[in-house]
Amino acid sequence: MKKNYYLCTRLEAPQTTMGEKIKRIKRIKNIRLHREGTNTLLYVGIGLVAVGALLWHVGGNSFFFKAFACLAIAAYLVLVNFFRCPIRYYPGETENIVVAPADGRVVVIEEVVEDEYFHDKRLMISIFMSLFNVHANWFPVDGRVKFVHHQNGNYHKAWLPKASEENEHADIMLETDDGREILCRQIAGAVARRIVTYAKDGEDCYIDEHLGFIKFGSRVDVYLPLGTEVCVKMGQSTTGDQTVIAKLKD
Hints:
Layout (H helix, E strand, L loop, with lengths): L17 H12 L2 E2 L4 H22 L3 H20 L1 E2 L11 E3 L4 E11 L5 E10 L6 E3 L4 E9 L11 H4 L2 E7 L5 E8 L5 E4 L6 E2 L4 E6 L2 E7 L4 E2 L6 E2 L5 E4 L3
Antiparallel strand pairs: 1-2, 3-16, 4-5, 4-15, 5-13, 6-12, 7-8, 7-11, 8-9, 9-13, 10-12, 14-16
Helix pairs in contact: 2-3
């Protein structure tokens, strides 16, 4: 059953200073490509160059070669954008804070009955990642990884409600320092065919660390205790490891 939740008050953004601009420039320079994309970018690049060379050999600087070159460059730039891996650090205190585990758009904020692990009601916040979003995933809270479980399944469109349970997914159960359990679920989509999870059973986890990566269009669900203060709204864009999506109650 859906409910309305109290949204955190947004503070008016202060005017950007020169120091903040310099930090932003440095942050842009720190953007790199994710290791999960190394082989894909290499093989696709070699393939596109090979096809382009063949077209040039057959027809020279023809219309077909020019058309292919334009499409190949555009497609490769989209692929490079997909495998971006910005270096991010949450700027504030992390106690009781839940950050977005992914870049994307909020598609679900509702109470659901979670029967697989909790067997009770939880607050679920879901973030859908399009092809143009960064697809690295971050830990949403500080704490410890209780367990990681991978479940094979279907490949429905990731924004559909049934995708959360029926699609291939990886469940990462996290426990905060005060004993509260948070479930983070990586979900494959209609295009995504590989979920990578770096989290390991029993290890400590922290905001700013990568939880995993999902290749091509997908979704991440976060299951929180009832009474959690929601800090985002439906349709809102999120930035992984930066956007506060909720605050846990003391």
